[in-house]
Amino acid sequence: MSEKNNGVSQSDADQYWQANLKLLAKLLVVWFVVSFGFGILLVDVLNMVSIGGVKLGFFFAQQGSIYVFVLLIFVYVRQMNKLDKKFNVEED
Amino acid sequence: MELQTWIYLAVGGTFALYMGIAIWARAGSTKEFYVAGGGVNPIANGMATAADWMSAASFISMAGLIAFLGYNASPYLMGWTGGYVLLALLLAPYLRKFGKFTVPEFIGDRFYSRTARLVAVVCLIVASTTYVIGQMKGVGVAFGRFLEVEFETGILIGMTVVFFYAVIGGMKGITYTQIAQYVVLIFAYTVPAAFISLQLTGMPIPQLGLGSTLSDGSGIALLDKLDQTVTDLGFAKYTEPSGSRLNTFMLTLSLMIGTAGLPHVIIRFFTVPKVSDARKSAGWALVFIAILYTTAPAVGSMARMNLMDTIQTGPVGEETANIKYAERPGWFKRWENTGLLKFEDKNGDGRIQYYNDKNAEFAANAEAQYGWKGNEMVKVDRDIMVLANPEIAKLPNWVIALVAAGGLAAALSTAAGLLLAISSAISHDLLKRTFTPNISEKNELMAGRIAMATAVMIAGYLGMNPPGFAAQVVALAFGLAASSIFPVLMMGIFSKRINNVGAIAGMLAGLLSTLIYIFVFKGWFFIPGTNWFTNDAAHWFLGIAPESFGALGALINFGVATAVSRATAPPPQHIQDLVESVRIPKGAGGAVAH
């Protein structure tokens, strides 16, 4: 590598990384809440509510959390593509 | 057409397809052999990853596990999908940017240490080999049940097919066969599920059928009816948790980080052209996996419902409400022949009583009031739930044949991915990067093929003569990946301060603590009788089962690595620069050797 970080300035690189970490933190909070929160820790409370024939806690544990996981990755893809452009670090 | 003819057609046809792909996708260079040339479309790679990931266990056993455990099987559903969020956000794009061929290679380079690389190679080989035994067994079982050939012959046929496309095509051949295998397996899984859902609830989409009311005119929701049916017979409620909440939590977390740390899955993301493709590809992989994983809970609950209803046809306690053994359905007889179902007329009334006799109160009551002398379904293998489902639902023969081909596709695709991870660790990490750095490209490719061929034969041998611990592989493979591989990869990317000594100390601490915790409950090296403590909740540390310990092992790894790194010199400048460059997509290019 002739030039460090392929011509990306240090301040761009640092800001890009900070923005990335912030995004990760937000997404991982949702990841934790739908699975460990709704699906495990709060399952008894949520099971008192039924939506469309499924108890809500059970739904999150066996269906809902998986749908949210898929969504989370695509939100991440979208947001990272934006960040890549904003800080000019996208691939050629 | 006869069932056997259909099965020969389905299995023979799909095998011919895999062979055809093998000839078309020959690997001509190490880059093609290790990472399929690095030019795989991200959606295609997502599909290949899904097939790579979904094993014989996912296809054959998971729905049955859910059928019998109900809510308590949720850690497997959340763990084996939630891990992809971690993989996508924390590992895949950065490891793709690093742009080399194997997982130990990143660990060796980032922690500038041959020891770190070797520890990683050992973890990878142990985790992948234990895992591959299960796949080979799955191949043997599927052949045995559907084609009525010997277990060993089944494994031999399976080995020959994998040998063909994995040795010739390497990652390239594996990738394109996995795509075909995904299509076969997902079709085979969802078609019977849709039919069963339609029959029970009038709703052909199983995911929606799970929440629908039964179409028998009762107006009761499927899951409510199931809860009632099982509790009437002394079983635990289907939709409610039982057991330690902490253990459920830890098991889910261990399976998640274990999933993200399994090398055969990670290397699939080295095959896409760009960093942004690696992110996208992880999303598509989870879409393709979620199709099966959200269908499984529907299959599980509906299969349980069908099974209970077949045996207990009316109110509990009424004599005529239990089906006569002589009048049992055809599928019941067929699966009795395989030994997966077993009936024993304990009270000699010629009828079948299926209830939970471990529930002391219910059992005493049933004996006093109805004259039941114990549960008479002495064996109900959980694999039946998927394998016999088409027959229970009276589906046409071609659907049953499809299930046979699907089970084989699931087992073969996972086996091939694991074998590639093993052989590339040997030919690339051990030979090229450690012992014979001057090996030529051509010889390395040859070494890769020899390693692959040897690995196939060892896997086949172990599949035919499974060591006593074969059933324990899940705990071991996920425990190792969670406690040693995932933390060190994550720290290598997210911390510039973790150095060589810290990483090695962390890996060993995580690995040993997890291994020891598994061994003291399950026996040293799984040798029966050598365990120090009884393997039950009363003896577990804070009620955490050996299967759930991986997350604690990971925590120990993070802690030790951080503490040791703080006490020793920071990594040299060029390593810190490497970390910086891994964090930025720009300048990725294809995966390169050096």
Determine the most extensive contact between two protein chains.
A-B, 50 and 52 residues
Topology of chain B as a string of helices (H) and strands (E): HHHHHHHHHHHHHHEHEHHHHHHHH
Please indicate the percent range of residues of chain A in DSSP E strands (runs of 2 or more): under 5%
The end-to-end span of chain A amounts to: 16 Å
Q: How would you describe the shape of chain B?
A: globular
Strand order within the widest beta sheet of chain B: 1-2
Poorly predicted ranges of chain A (pLDDT <50, ≥5 residues)?
A: none
User: How much β-strand is present in the residues of chain B?
Assistant: under 5%
Tell me the number of helical segments of chain B per DSSP (H or I, 4 or more residues long).
23
Biggest sheet: strand arrangement of chain A = 1-2
For the largest beta-sheet of chain B, the strand count, sense and barrel status come to: 2 strands, antiparallel
CATH fold-level topology of the largest domain in chain B: Sodium/glucose cotransporter
Radius of gyration of chain A: 19 Å
Structure commentary:
- The complex is a heterodimer of chains A (92) and B (594).
- Chain A has a domain of 60 residues.
- In chain A, a hairpin with a 2-residue loop joins β1 and β2.
- In chain A, 73% of the residues lie in helices and 4% in strands.
- Chain A has a two-stranded antiparallel ribbon with strand order 1-2.
- The mean pLDDT of chain A is 92.
- Chain A is built from 3 helices and 2 strands.
- The longest helix of chain A is centred in the first third of the chain and has 32 residues.
- Chain A is mainly alpha-helical and 92 residues long.
- Chain A is elongated and about 55 Å long.
- Chain B is an all-alpha fold and 594 residues long.
- Chain B folds into 2 domains: 493 residues, Sodium/glucose cotransporter; 64 residues, no CATH class.
- Helices cover 69% and strands 1% of the residues of chain B.
- Chain B is built from 23 helices and 2 strands.
- Chain B has a two-stranded antiparallel ribbon.
- In chain B, α7 packs across α19, α10 crosses α13 and α20 runs antiparallel to α21.
- The longest helix of chain B is centred in the first third of the chain and has 51 residues.
- The interface between A and B is large, with 50 and 52 residues.
